[in-house]
Fold:
Amino acid sequence: MDTNTTSNEYVRGTLKTIVLNLLAEEKRMYGYEITQEVKERTGGAIALTFGALYPVLHKLEQEGLLVTESVEVDGRLRKYYSLTTPGNEAARVKTDDLERFVDAIRLLLAPKSLATE
Amino acid sequence: MKRLQENRIELLSNYLKKSGLSPELLPEILDHLACEAEERLWDGDSFECAFSGIVETADPDTLHILSVEHNHLLAMEKTLNDIVFEGRNKSYGAYQLRKGYNSTMQRSVLLGVTFFLLIMLLPNLYARLVPEREKDDIGFEVKLTTVDIKPETTPPPLPVEPPKAEPQPSTVKSTSYDVLPDHMVVEEATPPTVDDLEHALPGQETVEGTSDLMDIVPPSAEAPAGKGKAVEAEAPKEETFIIVEQAPAYLGGNAAMAEFLRKNLKYPAQASRANIQGKVFVSFIVGSDGRIEDVKTLKGIGFGCDEEAERVIKLMPNWKAGRQSGTPVRVRFNLPIVFQLD
Structure:
């Protein structure tokens, strides 16, 4: 539980990038699909709650990075999200940013572990 | 994958509504939770178990936060107008006007400025479009010449022709005689004889005349040549006769005139009321062309009868003019008009 919350803390900052990156790969996804995909890929290490996911999706939509289309599936309205052209660009930039950040963090953490070894 | 039955979805939906989820988010969250529930059912859980699990993850607080965040997101888009018109009749028109105010203003300012500049620059544009005149068109080369001013010369007076010698009749000295004492009487001064005067006129001196004319010629100065015409134009006033050899008459005779009078003469209402009868003597002139003029009443009876009589006389057609020695002349004519009540 403890690990889960800490992971959530980091997730909150990178959620936008995660969503954009996923959509760049999958073209068209709906909310639940995104959570499942994330869970699958990370082996359950990162679990997105819908309480965190949907505000981010809505915000991205408002910023014009995502477009939605509603399709009726099994008698329910399912909202599919896909990237717009600026959304694609934003996904690329954010992913690059995150990668550099992760590298930096790794550098920040590595020497210590190396030194201790 | 197992499907959720309609009533179960309904159950979820009701739960979400009860939790106060904003209706805009409802379909999406419902789908998400339904998917999750189906997943759990797939894993072998009973619906009740799945449902309680879902409620655990989607507790009212989380849903509330979700709604609030969504509202915040929407609020960011909202302008002052949206806030002012929240829950009001937006279709009335004011909302649209307010919404479009900025663009309208922008357009009007742009148009106004463009129009103003166009007006201001019109003279400049015109000057650019219409080619300037060539230099030659503006300047004129003027040659200065000395003007020879000559003193005004009065034309020489026309040579006055010497008056032609008027044919002079022969005259014989015939002056008045003064009564004088005998010693002062000049012998020569004897009056001309009848024989002398047969071929000469009496004059101051005895002069041999240039012609045999015996007429008395008026002095030339007394008859200026240029004015003779004007005197001629002044037509001599036609004499108006009272009695002529051939009296003027109404065309068609007295019977026709009586008929005319009977037709045109109206008994004045005033006179008929006052029971006035009698004769109105009307005098008028029948011109040489037969026209009737100068109509006047000589002796009337009043009460509008005089005026009526005059009116009818003036109404008459031209008469046959009176004649004196064969030529038509103006004749004054008196006509009694009888007014008689039946």
In short: Residues 6-77 of chain B form one domain. The mean pLDDT of chain B is 79. Strands of chain B lie at 171-173, 201-203, 240-241, 278-286, 292-299, 322-324, 327-339. Chain B is about 40% helix and 10% strand.
